[in-house]
Design a protein that fits this description.
The chain is an alpha/beta fold. Helix content is 49%, strand content 10%.
Amino acid sequence: MQGERKIIWLFGGSGSGKSSVAYSTAERLRSKDHLAATFFFSRKHLSRSQTDHVFPTIAYRIGLLHAHAKEVIIKAIKDDPELLTAEKSRREQFEKLVTDPLRALQYVWCTKRAMIFDAADEGEGDQINDLVYMLIELLRDPSIPISSILFTSRPLFRLGSLTRNNGIESMFISLRIEDFEATHDIEVFLCDSLRRIYEDRELQFMHPQPWPPPNLIASLLNRIRGQFIVAATICRLIRDATDPIECLDLVSDMYTGEVEPLSLNLTGIDSVYYHILSDCDTTSRIPGAKCLADITALAETLSLSDLCRLFATRDVPKHITHLSAIVVIPSIESRDTVQVYHASLRDYLSDESRSQEFYVHPKVSHQRLVCMCLRLMKRDLRKDICGLEDPSKLHSEFEDFIYRREAYISGALRYACLYWPYHLLRSECTEETRALVVYFVKKQLLFFVEASAIIGSLHAAVNGLTDVQRAISKWKPSDDQKLALKLLYDAVRLVLQFIEPISNSALQLYASALPMCPVITQLSSTYRDLFKDSEVSVEYGLNNPWNYIIRTFAVEDGASIVMSPDGRRYATVVSTAMAMSASGIPARTPSTIYSRPKAM
């Protein structure tokens, strides 16, 4: 990958071995000190399907490689801690966390290095385009010691429009993994994997060598046709079988048509998936498929114990035990997460023409998940959930704060708080969903805000509540809809006005923020009991509705006006005078975000 600066784009179908190529290439480059950084996108993790974490991850990798780069990165973060947050623009992150540190290594790295980005098709489309355009700048800048960038993705990624519209075709090399003969590699993989199974399961007492026979290996290779995922799944299926020899014979018979467990195309992964899903008691097949579909729809993987809490049943292990060939299933005591081996399983379950009776519409899974999240929060959320008691103390002043947080907010509850809006936006709107959402906003909305402050996700909570407003606005008009929209609007306004004190001490939500909420708002009247004992008393000024000021914050001099994409909000400096702090030291220029009045 040395020589002329290029972006190499490797295309390949699902399960064709693209990620294996990315991993092995990364290891080979790393062993020669030719690797700068990697990032592996994944639909199994919401945080890795977006570009929010790409540049901080690259910066971390680069910082580990050399002290010069590390110093530049640390200084940038000290100067602007928000560089590590999703709220910071990707452009600023790119320049401060990637470009500047790499430029500092211009005369340090004797050999230019490469970057690798796997599964680009599993990231958000427009975000990936922006990422590629910025990375091209690294290749064009002679002061940046980066020579090549490798991307992998499925063929559906629209590389043509990405390059043609910007006149950068000459910088791209496009390759198809199917153009490479992989039969020998798969043969080596199959033989090595089956040899390990033979030794680990002590099959020599049941079947003499050679096992499996060469003709059986040849038959499998002919049917697998270069699909690494099929080979890997077959090996896991045999490894976990009660009788590996019988299992291999069954797989062989299935591929040669001597048994008829399915009527699907036998040259791909579908036949293997169908066989594994069917390999249990008939009454367990559909519940197992539903459970599996819900697991693949999660925004973030969870441990088995947290899955049981979220799903509110101890039957999760029972539903997925027979799926160990396609799902990583840790023990109930382990903190390791349950996850599918390959993203193609989600595609299979959501395509009725492929999965047939195991088909589960994604909206149905998201509907079940949002209801699970809302029920869990209904059970577990409460005022002062961590027993902090004293709102005057910052979180950092509690020596056991982290212990309390882990003890009282389970991984399942944390997941519910973070991702219930995500599932709501993607779900079918049912009577059950509406009833749970209305109950939540009327009874638990502020407990949710408190928990979000404790787990450090207030900004995400604001974004989530805004998404919920958008979802509820599509409901059939009713009194409950109007009430819910009013409460959500008030909650967002309250959090934004008091985000700093609530972030540092969650109980300030009840001690100071709520008492200062305009009394004519729906939030103030609905949640009055939560602050009736507050020591804060406001004499006047709360009889008016929310004004147009959403949030006041500090900015450096010379800040410009910024308009939001929808034109509803903009930020601008409203005072050029230097404010004086209590100590007499000039403070930074205050800035305010305004909310435009809605058109009547």
